[in-house]
Design brief:
- The chain has three helices and four strands.
- The protein is α+β, with helices and mostly antiparallel strands.
- The protein has one domain.
- It has a two-stranded antiparallel sheet with strand order 1-4. It has a two-stranded antiparallel sheet with strand order 2-3.
- It is globular and about 50 Å long.
- The relative contact order is 0.13.
Length: about 150
């Protein structure tokens, strides 16, 4: 409603809780499967409702922690390093997965089975700040981080 009201909204954050699962996550049924279904339905509804405004919208979905590469003994996964981000919108160079994929062999994982962080989330957010919000001050927002463009915004 705020976007449609055209009040000048530049940023908003929504928290979808419940992702701190470690057991019985499930592929088609289970905690993680239900969360993924809720997230995908919400993103689809958002896009459907705002399809005519999507050229002016950049939506970022991210998590505060990644997951281990392999299932634990309780049919879940534990916290890990590498995660993912979804970026949607009219200016997004979509239809691609941007990564420096190291693989899943034991020697390619970090610590006790974590995916390596290959792209810093600050690089993605900095690119959006510069190209979508016309804010070149990412060094003040992310001090001591030399942001590298990842090619997510056209």
């Amino acid at each position: 409603m705020l976007i449609k009201a055209e009040i000048g909204l530049e940023t908003a954050a929504i928290d979808l809780s419940g992702w701190d699962t470690h057991f019985a996550q499930g592929v088609q049924d289970g905690q993680m499967a239900r969360l993924m279904a809720d997230l995908s339905a919400g993103l689809a509804a958002f896009h459907s409702d705002l399809e005519n405004q999507m050229t002016g919208i950049t939506l970022v979905v991210m998590t505060e922690f990644g997951r281990r590469a392999y299932e634990n003994a309780s049919l879940g996964t534990d916290h890990g390093h590498g995660g993912l981000m979804f970026v949607l919108g009219g200016a997004v160079a979509g239809g691609q997965v941007i990564t420096h994929w190291p693989g899943l062999k034991k020697e390619q994982l970090v610590g006790p089975g974590d995916l390596a962080v290959t792209i810093d989330y600050r690089d993605v957010l900095s690119e959006i700040l510069i190209k979508r919000l016309n804010n070149p001050s990412q060094s003040q927002i992310f001090p001591e981080h030399d942001a590298q463009p990842v090619g997510i915004i056209k």
